[in-house]
Structure formats: structure tokens, C-alpha cells
Design the sequence.
């Protein structure tokens, strides 16, 4: 006799509500630091930022995100989980969890990448502004030499 | 309240083996395995590995903006962890609900 369970009693409201409240707005990284302009430009060097910052920051954040995602991927590659409960109710519940955790991780890490990109853009703008200032100063100094 | 899986097939929650659609993996083992991956794995990495990013910031970046970024990142990692705790809790509740359905089904089988 084929056994078929009645899973209509599974209440997914809790997870449904969690999913509805899932938004990148939960995270504050992208807006929390506002601006790094305060590091400013003093004299001939960028105060507060050392050479290699952009590369090191990107490397650290990319590794961080990859490490989290790699762990989450184990939910799908772990044979004990993948082969467990091939029934309508629990199998679909596990799939919903995997999907929700992935979405949550994506929302979190996406905001972090946005923050990183914003920092990098501002650092580049400061370098550019610094270069222009130095160039203008050099032009001014050079023009004085002719007089 | 979590279901007592013992009565489902007398296996103590281990080696559930419904030939029509189930593997032999026990419910408790499955939940433990999922918790290990989601919470002890991804969640703890998100919390603990923030330090690696913060160390880079400390080495290459000075100023109040850095401190704000670090603080916000730590807070976001905690938010992420709290969210996946809730999601895992929802899964366990859904598994319990499925268990109650199986239990009711068992009852009907024996009636």
C-alpha cells in the first residue's frame, strides 16, 4: 500500500512572515558610514588612508562573503540533507529554508559590497582631488618661477 | 512544543524509514546537521570573520568613518545571524507540524 501523508496541516505562516520582512533595509552597512570625506586631504598626503587599502578591503570582504556562501551551499551538497525525507512536507520545508537563508545572505552581503564600493569610490575621488590640488599647486609654483 | 518523534515509528527519531518517500535519516540528526551548517557554520562565520575585515580597516584606515563602518558591519552580522536563527526555528516548527501530520496518519492507519 502506498503511503501518502496529509501535510496540509503544516503551518508556514512563521516563515512566510519572516520572508516578507526580509529586506536589505534591515542592514545598515551601506548607509551607516555615510561618508569618509572626513579623512580629508592634508598637505601632500591623504590623511587616514594607506596605500593598498582598496585592494586589501576588497580581498577581505570577498573572502568573507565567499566563506559564508560556501557554508550555506553545504545545505544543498550535503547528501544527508539532500536525501533526507523525500516527502512532500519536510522536503519542501527544507527547500524553503535553503532558499530563505540564501536570500538573507544575499541581502546582507550585497549591502556589504555596496558599502565597500562606495568607500572605494570615495577614496578614488579623494586621490583624484589630491592629484588635482598638487597639480594646481605645481602649476602655480612653476608660473611664479618665470617672474 | 516540539513533537516527540519516538511514536512515529518507534525509532526514537532515528532511522525513519518510510519506504514510500523517506530516506532512513532521523529527524533529530537532520535538524542537528542543518543547525550545524546554518548557525554554527554560516552564522558564526558571519559574526567571527568580521574581525578579518575590521583588521584590514585598522591597518589601512584611520578616522571616525572607519569606526562607524566597523560598528555597523558588526551590527549587520548580528542582524543576519538573528534572521537565520529565526528561519531555522521556522523550519523546525514546520518539521514538527509534518510530524504531527504523520502521527495523525499513523493513528488513522491503526484505527
Sequence:
Amino acid at each position: 500500500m502506498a503511503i501518502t501523508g496529509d501535510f496540509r496541516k503544516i503551518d508556514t505562516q512563521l516563515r512566510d512572515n519572516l520572508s516578507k520582512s526580509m529586506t536589505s533595509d534591515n542592514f545598515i552597512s551601506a548607509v551607516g558610514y555615510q561618508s569618509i570625506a572626513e579623512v580629508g586631504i592634508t598637505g601632500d598626503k591623504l590623511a587616514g588612508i594607506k596605500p593598498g587599502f582598496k585592494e586589501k578591503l576588497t580581498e577581505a570582504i570577498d573572502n568573507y562573503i565567499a566563506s559564508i556562501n560556501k557554508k550555506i551551499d553545504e545545505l544543498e551538497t550535503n547528501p544527508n540533507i539532500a536525501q533526507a525525507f523525500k516527502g512532500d512536507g519536510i522536503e519542501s520545508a527544507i527547500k524553503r529554508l535553503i532558499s530563505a537563508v540564501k536570500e538573507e545572505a544575499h541581502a546582507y552581503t550585497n549591502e556589504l559590497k555596496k558599502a565597500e564600493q562606495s568607500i572605494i569610490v570615495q577614496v578614488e575621488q579623494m586621490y583624484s582631488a589630491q592629484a588635482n590640488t598638487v597639480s594646481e599647486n605645481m602649476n602655480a609654483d612653476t608660473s611664479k618661477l618665470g617672474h | 512544543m516540539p513533537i516527540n518523534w519516538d511514536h512515529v515509528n518507534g525509532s526514537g527519531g532515528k532511522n525513519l524509514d518510510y519506504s514510500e518517500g523517506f530516506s532512513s535519516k532521523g529527524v533529530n540528526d537532520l535538524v542537528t546537521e542543518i543547525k550545524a551548517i546554518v548557525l554554527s557554520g554560516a552564522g558564526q562565520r558571519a559574526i567571527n570573520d568580521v574581525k578579518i575585515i575590521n583588521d584590514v580597516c585598522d591597518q589601512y584606515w584611520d578616522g571616525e568613518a572607519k569606526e562607524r563602518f566597523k560598528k555597523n558591519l558588526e551590527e549587520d552580522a548580528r542582524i543576519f545571524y538573528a534572521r537565520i536563527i529565526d528561519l531555522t526555528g521556522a523550519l523546525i516548527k514546520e518539521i514538527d507540524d509534518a510530524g504531527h501530520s504523520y502521527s495523525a496518519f499513523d493513528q488513522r492507519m491503526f484505527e
In short: Residues 60 and 66 of chain B are 10 Å apart (CA to CA). The two ends of chain B are 26 Å apart (CA to CA). Residues 26-100 of chain B form one domain.
